[in-house]
Design goal:
Layout lengths: L4 E7 L6 H8 L2 H4 L2 E7 L3 H9 L5 E5 L2 H6 L9 E6 L2 E2 L1 E6 H9 L8 H17 L5 E5 L5 H12 L8 E5 L5 H7 L4 E5 L2 H8 L2 E6 H4 L6 E6 H6 L1 H19 L4 H8 L9 H9 L1 E5 L2 E4 L4 E2 L10 H13 L7 H8 L4 H8 L21 E2 L8 E2 L15 H7 L7
Parallel strand pairs: 1-2, 1-3, 7-8, 7-9
Antiparallel strand pairs: 3-11, 4-11, 5-14, 6-9, 6-10, 12-13, 15-16
Helix pairs in contact: 1-12, 5-6, 8-9, 12-17, 13-14
Main location: membrane
Subcellular location: Endomembrane system
Protein name: Nitrate transporter
Length: 411
């Protein structure tokens, strides 16, 4: 029974907290007879620790974070699961104004193409090294984050060694615009709206986006402890149904303005409503008075955006191995895979008219165009899902994929 169940959920002020906020604000949680209490946090470390010590029953969580905890890589490692994703995409890479101008002077077109931006960045780095200048400092939001892995993937594919050519540090998302303005960092990879805030304040320029590094790729999940999930299965199922219906509402183009108004409120993102609307519609101001329309920038519901694909979990695991955060073994791969729980997702959503994927894993990067796929009900379309360098990830061939990464620097 779920009547009167109270769930405290931690979140960070980011665009991809939208489904959680909409579930509370638009009554979807109430419809499932649960009371959701959202608590805004300032850093992913706080989210991690407050889940571990029991302050939160659930949390808006970086997609690799449950995997890291289950592999014992976190300071307070507890068994976690991800029974639902909270959307696809939503990140961007933003450079300081001086770095942007330097890259533009070396041929960057400014159209968000990752290969083009990467070539210019590589040239800048080589010139700085020859001149004896300090390495560029690039901020990500957490060591176990999609931001860290997509940034490193992009840099490496463009011929930049993330370990030797730049310094990568951790900064909480809301502090990124100020870190750029102060000169403490030269670039950041962060979720929206903080790239757009940096542009609006004059401290940054967006140079590429996650949606073009790896299109329709995973970003955040709902994270819960295994203990709570096992003890409160009915409540968890009700929460997933509320979030799924919230995702449907968030995805409606007619609802974008209302959603932007809700998210912009002081208790949620506390940023300008117009900035939020641009992020929701993919109309990004990459620099003042210059808008680039990005397809699939942040996908809330379509393309199985809330399904916890175990192939996503295994790709994140492959990057943990690549960058020396853990060793590779068959046991570790199973732990990573089973951190994502599509079985719970299917169980919870069975009463709804939702098309549920028939598989738990898929080949990542293989779809160049939208593709209808098998599901419990008609209407599920996936892709495109390409990596910008044309590679694919087959979870059934993970050993070869990890070996092919050639340590830190190879692709």
């Amino acid at each position: 029974m779920t009547d009167g169940a109270e769930i405290t959920i931690g979140f960070l002020p980011l665009l991809d907290s939208a489904i959680l906020i909409a579930a509370a604000e638009k009554g979807f949680a109430r419809d499932e007879h649960i009371d959701v209490n959202l608590v805004r946090e300032t850093s992913w470390a706080n989210i991690r620790d407050r889940v571990a010590v029991g302050h939160f029953e659930a949390a808006h969580m970086l997609a690799p974070m449950p995997i890291a905890s289950n592999l014992g890589l976190s300071p307070l490692s507890v068994p976690l699961i991800a029974p639902m994703a909270l959307g696809l995409g939503g990140n961007a890479v933003t450079a300081s104004v001086p770095l942007y101008e330097d890259m533009s002077g070396r041929g960057m077109a400014g159209d968000l193409d990752p290969a083009d931006a990467g070539r210019a960045l590589k040239t800048v780095i080589a010139a700085r090294s020859e001149a004896g200048m300090e390495r560029l400092r690039i901020a990500v939001v957490h060591p176990f984050s999609g931001h860290n892995y997509e940034l490193r993937y992009w840099l490496t594919a463009c011929g930049v060694d993330p370990e030797r050519d730049v310094d990568i540090i951790v900064v909480p998302p809301p502090l990124m615009p100020d870190a750029l303005a102060s000169g403490n960092i030269d670039m950041c990879c962060v979720g929206e709206p903080w790239n757009s805030v940096a542009v609006s304040r004059g401290s940054g320029r967006i140079i590429t986006v996650k949606a073009r590094i790896w299109r329709n790729s995973p970003e955040k999940v709902l994270g819960v402890t295994s203990r709570w999930a096992n003890a409160q299965g009915d409540v968890l199922d009700a929460l997933l149904r509320a979030l799924y219906r919230a995702a449907e509402w968030c995805a409606g183009s007619d609802n974008a303005e209302e959603l932007a108004a809700i998210l912009s409120r002081p208790q949620w993102l506390n940023v300008d409503e117009k900035l939020v609307l641009g992020c929701l519609t993919g109309a990004l101001a990459t620099r003042p008075d210059h808008i680039v329309q990005v397809d699939d920038f942040f996908v809330r519901h379509a393309k199985a955006a809330t399904f916890p694909w175990q192939s996503h979990a295994l790709w994140f695991y492959s990057q943990m191995v690549r960058w020396g955060q853990c060793g590779h073994s068959a046991k570790n791969a199973v732990i990573a895979r089973d951190s994502y729980r599509p079985d719970i997702y299917r169980r919870a959503l069975k009463p709804l008219p939702a098309p549920l994927p028939g598989a738990n894993l898929k080949v990542e990067g293989a779809l160049s165009r939208p593709q209808p796929v098998g599901a419990s009900k008609a209407g599920l379309v996936l892709g495109p899902d390409g990596f910008f360098d044309g590679r694919i990830f087959d979870p059934d061939a993970i050993d070869a994929y990890i070996a092919g990464q050639n340590g830190h620097r190879g692709n």
